[in-house]
Write a structure and sequence with these properties.
heterodimer, A: about 700 residues, alpha+beta, 5 domains, five-stranded antiparallel β-sheet, three-stranded antiparallel β-sheet, 27 helices, flat, B: about 300 residues, BirA Bifunctional Protein, domain 2, Methane Monooxygenase Hydroxylase, Chain G, domain 1, 2 domains, nine-stranded mixed β-sheet, 9 strands
């Protein structure tokens, strides 16, 4: 079986990019072989921080042959009337290296033409591989690239060697000043010197012998198994940080897990602080006794080593961790120093927020906190919170950014909110105040938890909305695929919190309030800001665009969404209630009836503006009947609408269907008499409006079908 | 191994690799990168190989001599080679052997760590080198300096001398390190930390420093107009240091901060552009010739 092996030897590629690059390598190889008509059995990729590997097995000896048609002269020119071949056709055959009798005639738009069926014989695959290898390297999609030395080439990190073998032979090509060869290197710490490789099988053996585990998945398994064993040894709970695992599998060529420990007096620090130090900064796996409790151990994944040095390596890591924990302990104490003199550190920090910039041109975090207090109170009042809860909300909003200037958060920014919660509890705040402070940042990523308290939810919505509004005003709205401030994620966060906690309020009002708070702020540099009335609408549309995506993702039909969105709603929860009401009746025959009736009323009256109905001008029995039904329903539906009972609105509307059918059967609307015609149109228009009180039913797909019929 | 022996051994090793062993600069710098032997020399097509110790001042990092790991002035060992050699990682690993750190005995990792100096308009890609969990070196392929794309690309290796010494001497406290047999790091540096911290955080005269910043900036600007890029760059460094002092003193408001960084960057950028122009007028005397290449 023919095998092509390509190894790109590099200096350490950042762990986060390796999986992505290998995927791109595999896909490009597949596409390129297909394009080149080269058959094969299997493509696989492997990689470590120091090498990217491509193996293609079962490559066919030759490219596939192809034939394609070449258009020649028209049949009339190529043959005379007796069918004898003419000079033009002979020349054409010769030029295309086909025998004249093999020419064929085919119909085209412009009449009959002569064609030559030209066969292209496949090249020997081996002759094409140099170019393929070169193109694979150049064509890789890289998240970042750099230059080095004097080479004009770019890659994610410097390439130091290229190995390319087709069975036993070198596939020779040049990339910058490098030439491909049959030479590779083993583990950079445990082996030295180049290795000469015969072929693919020999390569894989050489990697094993020289301490390189080329398969990321295998390295992951090795790490997992070793961790499980070590955790068992100290009776910890099996709990492996998945994101860290994905990262460390690509940090080594030969992973080995070592167990270290730290002084258990550090365990009094919040769990999040301990894990931030271990996971984020040192890439250590913490060991849990249970979900909320750590054991004074850690696991470090090293880049392979001989057993005899393990102890001193562990010791080195323990010393580093101790210094880090000592720092954390110092910060923790420093941040609470004021408590001793009876002061509240978080309150004391509010002033300091004047020195923290929120966004260039938009003032400080202090200003932001002032806005969050007003915004969150407004939402709270809108939601009808009692005065006690409003007080909690105000307190949480006032303190919510105070932890940004603590030593701990300055050192570990990812602990924002969490330290706020811890320090709030320590200075004697109500638990709900403390919890709301940490919940303001939820959800931080897709799949993260939502705030569980009403006050945390409101604070989180206010914070996210203020980020969105600020960016829009500052001219930093997302553009195409560019969304550096993750505003789309934050908009989605707002929507999800609203839906999760069933928060019933109008967002327009809050957006308007937010923009006016921002534009009135004295610290705002007005010259660079986009302030006009359109901005509020733009922001609302931006949020509702995310909402539409979410609804489609949740498999709601687009026509239902369109029908409700056409009402230009601004209450997220209300939109969902309306859509759900539509969903409930969507497939019923009554609804089809409603839609038909509504569409008729609407189509007839859509150009009329008159809404005033004169009782005295109603003449026919059916007309009076319809009017009475309308009056009755109008009142009932108004009440149902105010209670957001949209399913009941649709049930009520069904009552209208029969009288309106009778009306259309018996009464002519477009009569000569101006007054009577106008009166009937006014009646129909009022009825159409009633029909459309929950959603614009013309947007429903069924209605469209009816209309075209 | 004493701190001074670490310095001697690194100097001897990099000297053998063809680096000229220079001395620290005589103006306050925040890092060895700011020494003109790095910042100016990495510009343009000329080749360059140097190594030197650089006492680096970070006023805001001061802890009055109380913290066992943080100081407002630390010592860097800086290596610059332009263009970056093919085997530079191997050269680096061998340099560690000269101070008793053998790769077989440790876990040495090159962890992604991109580097940026906003006041210099400089950035590069590379790694933090981590030894048994401790960051001991920043290893960077410069891509830009003074906002100018570099070609060829230099490699910068910056060892943290105190960090290395703490590993080699197995100490947890910086002040307990031995500089030589007779004297500790603490005996040499501790009072410096105490007094400078007090100065940086409490005593620095804010209005004088603001005045100095403006004066230094003005001087740099007029020197640039006179095509004297090297003294102009000295005044740029002074601006940068004064800015760092003001920042540590908490005197720079949020709005002023970006403005001041921008002013220093603008000076650095103009010095860089002028430097390349002046070197070009000299015919880029340190361009490698084919004769040199054959000797390599």
């Amino acid at each position: 079986m023919n095998k092509l092996l390509l190894e790109i030897g590099t200096e350490e590629i950042p762990a986060a990019y390796i999986d992505h690059i290998l995927e791109s390598l595999k896909k490009n190889a597949h596409d390129m072989l297909k394009e080149q008509r080269i058959g094969y059995n299997n493509i696989s990729t492997f990689g470590t921080p120091r090498r990217l590997i491509l193996l293609i097995e079962g490559i066919l000896e030759r490219q596939q042959d192809v034939s394609h048609k070449v258009k020649g002269p028209s049949a009339a020119v190529a043959f005379d009337k007796e069918g004898v071949i003419q000079k033009a056709a002979l020349k054409f055959a010769e030029a295309n290296q086909v025998r004249p009798e093999k020419l064929i005639i085919e119909k085209t738009d412009k009449g009959d033409y002569v064609f030559a069926l030209k066969k292209i014989k496949g090249e020997k695959t081996e002759l094409l591989l140099s170019e393929i290898c070169l193109n694979l390297i150049t064509g890789l999609s890289l998240p970042k690239s750099m230059k080095w030395g004097t080479t004009p080439m770019r890659f994610i990190r410097p390439i130091r060697w290229l190995l390319a073998l087709y069975n036993d032979r070198i596939i020779s090509f040049n990339w910058g000043s490098l030439t491909s060869d049959r030479v590779t290197y083993g583990h950079c710490l445990l082996t030295t010197g180049p290795l000469k490789i015969k072929n693919a099988d020999d390569y894989f053996m050489a990697m094993i012998k020289n301490h390189v585990v080329i398969d990321p998945e295998l390295r992951k398994e090795m790490i997992k198994n070793q961790i499980t064993k070590k955790i068992e040894k100290v009776k910890g709970q099996e709990c492996i940080e998945q994101t860290l695992l994905e990262e460390v599998k690509n940090l080594t060529e030969y992973p080995k897990v070592l167990l270290g420990s730290f002084d258990k007096t550090y365990l009094y620090l919040p769990v999040e602080v301990l894990t931030a130090v271990m996971v984020k900064h040192q890439k250590y796996f913490p060991v849990y006794e249970n979900k909320n409790l750590l054991l004074p151990f850690f696991l470090v994944v090293i880049n392979g080593n001989e057993e005899q040095y393990a102890k001193s390596i562990v010791h080195g890591n323990e010393r580093v961790l101790k210094a880090r924990l000592e720092d954390a302990k110092f910060f923790y104490q420093e941040d609470q120093k004021l408590t001793k003199s009876g002061l509240k550190p978080l309150d004391n920090n509010i002033e300091k927020l004047n020195n923290v910039i929120f966004q260039e041109g938009l003032g400080t975090v202090f200003d932001k906190v002032s806005r969050l207090i007003v915004l969150s109170q407004d939402i709270g009042v809108e939601l009808g919170l009692d005065s006690e809860t409003l007080k909690i909300l105000k307190r949480a909003a006032r303190l919510c950014k105070s932890d940004l200037v603590t030593e701990m958060v300055k050192e570990f920014p990812e602990l924002q909110g969490i330290m706020g919660r811890e320090y709030a509890l320590l200075q004697g705040e109500a638990p709900q105040v403390a919890l709301s402070i940490s919940e303001q940042y939820l959800p931080r990523f897709s799949g993260d938890n939502f705030p569980t308290t009403i006050t945390g939810s409101i604070l989180s919505i206010s914070d996210k909305l203020d980020n969105i509004v600020s960016c829009f005003i500052n001219g930093m709205a997302p553009d195409g695929s560019q969304d550096p401030y993750a505003l789309r994620r934050q908009a989605l966060g707002i929507i999800n919190i609203v839906l999760f906690n069933k928060l019933n309020f109008s967002i327009n009002k809050i957006i308007n309030l937010n923009t006016s708070l921002l534009t009135e702020s004295k610290n705002m540099k007005k010259e660079n800001c986009l302030i006009d009335s359109a901005i509020n609408l733009l922001i609302k549309d931006f949020i509702f665009q995310r909402f539409r995506h979410l609804l489609l993702e949740k498999k709601y039909k687009y026509d239902m969404i369109d029908a409700v969105f056409a009402k230009r709603p601004d209450n997220i929860l209300d939109v969902l209630t309306r859509i759900e009401a539509l969903q409930k009746i969507y497939d019923t025959s009554e609804f089809a009836h409603t839609i038909t009736a509504a569409a008729r009323a609407y189509n007839l009256s859509k150009n009329s503006t008159e809404l005033k109905i004169h009782r005295a001008l109603l003449q026919e029995k059916e007309e009076v009947e319809l009017y009475n039904t309308y009056l009755e329903l109008n009142e009932a539906i108004e009440k149902l609408l105010s209670e957001q009972r949209y399913s009941d609105v649709f049930t009520s509307l069904e009552i209208m269907n029969k009288p309106i059918d009778l009306f259309f059967n018996k009464v002519l609307v477009m009569v000569e008499d101006d007054k009577i015609r106008k009166n009937r149109l006014a009646l129909l228009k009022s009825i159409a409006n009633l029909y459309f009180s929950v959603a614009d039913l013309t947007k429903i797909a069924l209605a469209k079908v009816n209309n075209t019929n | 191994m004493f701190i001074q022996d670490i310095i001697f051994n690194l100097e001897r090793y990099w000297g053998k690799q063809g680096c000229a062993i220079l001395t620290p600069y005589d103006t306050e710098v925040g890092a060895g990168t700011m020494n003109p032997a790095t910042f100016l020399r990495v510009l343009g097509p000329e080749y360059w190989k140097v190594a030197y110790v650089e006492p680096s001042r970070r006023p805001a990092d001061g802890r009055y001599g109380d913290n066992p790991n943080r100081v407002q002035q630390h010592y860097q060992f800086q290596v610059i080679i332009k263009p970056s050699p093919e085997n530079v990682q191997e050269m680096y690993l061998r340099s560690l052997e000269k101070i008793g750190i053998y790769r077989r005995e440790h876990d040495i990792r090159f962890m992604e760590g991109d580097w940026e100096a906003p006041t210099l308009g400089a950035w590069g890609l590379g790694w933090e080198v981590v030894l048994d969990g401790l960051e001991i070196t920043q290893f960077t392929y410069f891509q830009q300096a003074g906002g100018i794309d570099l070609n060829p690309i230099p490699v910068e290796i910056t060892y943290g001398l105190e960090r290395l010494a703490m590993v080699v001497q197995k100490k947890d406290n910086i002040y307990e390190l031995f500089w030589n047999k007779g004297i500790t790091y603490g005996e040499i540096q501790h009072q410096n930390e105490v007094q400078q911290s007090k100065y940086n955080f409490e005593e620095a005269d804010i209005s004088m420093l603001f005045t100095l910043f403006d004066m230094f900036e003005k001087e740099a600007q007029q020197l640039i107009l006179k095509k004297l890029t090297i003294p102009a760059y000295d005044y740029t460094l002074k601006c940068s240091h004064v800015f760092n002092l003001l920042d540590a003193r908490g005197a720079i408001s949020v709005t002023e901060r970006t403005g001041h960084i921008g002013r220093v960057r603008e000076l650095a950028k103009r010095c860089a552009e002028l430097y390349i122009q002046l070197r070009e007028e000299l015919g880029f005397p340190l361009m490698i010739t084919s004769k040199d290449k054959n000797n390599e």
